[in-house]
């Protein structure tokens, strides 16, 4: 390990980005059941610090939330208690500067799938359930696009065992 690190050079921009963990040291884990991933519906770039402080003021949580920008204008909301998460989800629709926040509640092992190349007559919940159970364990069929005759794919949600 020491030989590998001898020739490692970091530029000034990279200094705070490198985290080296020794073998046997456990990494901090995030409870996905307490997380939301979301973004604001806008083409404008959101000021992360301002967004974070406004949400903290609006939500008024008991235990708090850690907000991290994980991608360009995509945020991870890690709540410290399930009641705070429930409050945000139940009291939602949240906007900042007339830009609505859309989010998805993460659940460990749940995978959304798009199934392509199905015959036109096969876009039903029964077929979605059968395909979902064939892949893994079926959880949900997205019926919000029902009635569209020329659909390209079907949405289903399955639970995968990732242990």
Q: Could you explain how this protein is built, in words?
A:
The protein has 163 residues and is of the alpha+beta class. The chain is 23% helix and 29% strand. The chain has 4 helices and 8 strands; from the N terminus they run H-E-H-E-E-H-E-E-E-H-E-E. The strands form 2 sheets. The protein has a 5-stranded antiparallel beta sheet. It has a 3-stranded antiparallel beta sheet with strand order 6-8-7. It is elongated.
- What about the largest sheet? 5 strands, antiparallel
How much of the sequence is in beta strands? Answer: 25-35%
- Give the structural class: alpha+beta
Average pLDDT rating: 75
> First CA to last CA: what distance?
29 Å
Low-confidence stretches: 8-27
Overall shape: it is: elongated
Total DSSP E strands: 8
Rounded to an integer, what's the Rg over CA atoms?
21 Å
The portion of residues assigned to helices is 10-25%
In what order do the strands lie side by side in the largest sheet?
2-3-1-5-4
Number of helices: 4
* Topology order in helix (H) and strand (E) letters: HEHEEHEEEHEE
């Amino acid at each position: 390990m020491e030989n590998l690190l001898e020739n490692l050079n970091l530029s000034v921009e990279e200094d705070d980005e490198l985290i080296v963990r020794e073998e046997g040291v456990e990494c901090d884990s995030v409870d996905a059941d307490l997380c939301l991933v979301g973004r604001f519906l806008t083409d404008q770039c959101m000021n992360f610090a301002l967004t974070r402080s406004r949400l903290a003021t609006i939500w008024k949580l008991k235990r708090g939330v850690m907000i991290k920008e994980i991608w360009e204008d995509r945020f991870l909301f890690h709540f410290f208690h399930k009641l705070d998460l429930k409050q945000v989800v139940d009291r939602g629709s949240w906007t900042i500067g007339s830009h609505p926040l859309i989010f998805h509640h993460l659940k460990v092992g749940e995978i959304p799938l798009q199934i392509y190349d199905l015959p036109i007559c096969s876009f039903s919940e029964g077929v979605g359930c059968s395909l979902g159970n064939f892949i893994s364990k079926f959880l949900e069929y997205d019926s919000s696009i029902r009635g569209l005759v020329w659909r390209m794919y079907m949405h289903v949600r399955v639970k995968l065992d990732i242990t």
